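[recover] target loaded
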């Protein structure tokens, strides 16, 4: 496939994934009557069922056997499974404890961690405008962190875990569906054991909450796995640093939900901080499509002509 076409497909997958993640707080709010750790267990188990169904109907069993021939792949997938489970747990707890704005801050911080990994581990090159955009985003994050008045553990936890997950998915040379199938298979037994334990103790949600809420809980596997599949396909096709800035789609949607729908506090300091971040996004986007580089080239050309 042509390189530019492949990259465009990757960007589309990234937009789909991050848009879906942006509206997920609405989904988790529907389950606010259930403890976050139990939602997490169901989320993992039903993701396993959903992905397993996809694997069954696609008949993609041979690639799974091939994955287990590589010890490094097994280790990377295991780490992916653990890290994404931690990320899910933090996020669900943040949403249902009315800290959606801080959760959005975490995903605004995430690209800074992504850029750090891009330059130090993957040795990707950033141009001058992209570096400027990183500095602006960092200023925005610093402003909101100082205003917050304490270490924003939710935000930092979300930023670090998802950046690590993205890095591992970038390194891992495994089909997105196959990788997710193995990830969920690794964690599903633990999740199922916890669900059964809660039910045996009479504290489980199934049979207690309404039928509609139960169905929403079971469907969490679809809501979880679908954007993850899109994300994995994006990570395989585009630069890791580009993924970092596409990621701003999700927290922007989440921030809107937190402020407008859930009525969480959004001060002038929040606006100032996010303005730096949005400016960074605009600059990076323009530089990524070559617009700013063209402007610089044109300016240099005019100067050279004026000397003649």
């Amino acid at each position: 496939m042509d390189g530019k076409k492949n990259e465009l497909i990757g960007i589309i997958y990234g937009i789909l994934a991050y848009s879906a993640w942006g509206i997920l707080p609405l989904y988790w709010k529907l389950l606010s009557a259930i403890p976050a750790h139990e939602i997490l267990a169901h989320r993992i188990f039903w993701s396993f069922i959903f992905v397993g169904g996809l694997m069954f109907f696609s008949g993609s069993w041979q690639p799974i056997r091939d994955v287990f021939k590589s010890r490094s792949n097994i280790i990377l997938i295991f780490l992916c499974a653990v890290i994404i489970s931690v990320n899910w747990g933090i996020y669900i707890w943040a949403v249902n404890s009315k800290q959606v704005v801080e959760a959005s801050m975490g995903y605004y911080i995430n690209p800074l961690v992504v850029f750090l990994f891009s330059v130090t581990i993957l040795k990707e090159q950033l141009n001058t405008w992209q570096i400027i955009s990183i500095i602006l985003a960092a200023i925005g994050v610093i402003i909101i962190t100082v205003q917050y008045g304490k270490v924003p553990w939710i935000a930092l936890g979300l930023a670090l875990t998802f950046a690590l997950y993205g890095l591992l998915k970038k390194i891992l040379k495994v089909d997105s569906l196959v990788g997710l199938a193995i990830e969920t298979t690794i964690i599903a037994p633990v999740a199922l054991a916890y669900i059964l334990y809660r039910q045996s103790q009479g504290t489980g949600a199934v049979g207690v909450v309404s039928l509609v809420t139960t169905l929403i809980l079971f469907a969490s596997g679809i809501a979880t796995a679908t954007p993850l599949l899109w994300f994995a396909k994006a990570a395989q096709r585009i630069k890791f640093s580009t993924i970092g800035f596409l990621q701003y789609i999700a927290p922007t949607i989440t921030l809107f939900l937190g402020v407008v729908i859930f009525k969480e506090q959004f001060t002038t300091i929040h606006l100032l901080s996010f303005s730096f971040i949005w400016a960074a996004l605009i600059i990076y986007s323009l530089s990524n499509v070559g617009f700013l580089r063209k402007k610089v080239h044109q300016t240099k050309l005019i100067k050279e002509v004026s000397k003649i």
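[recover] notes: The mean pLDDT is 83.
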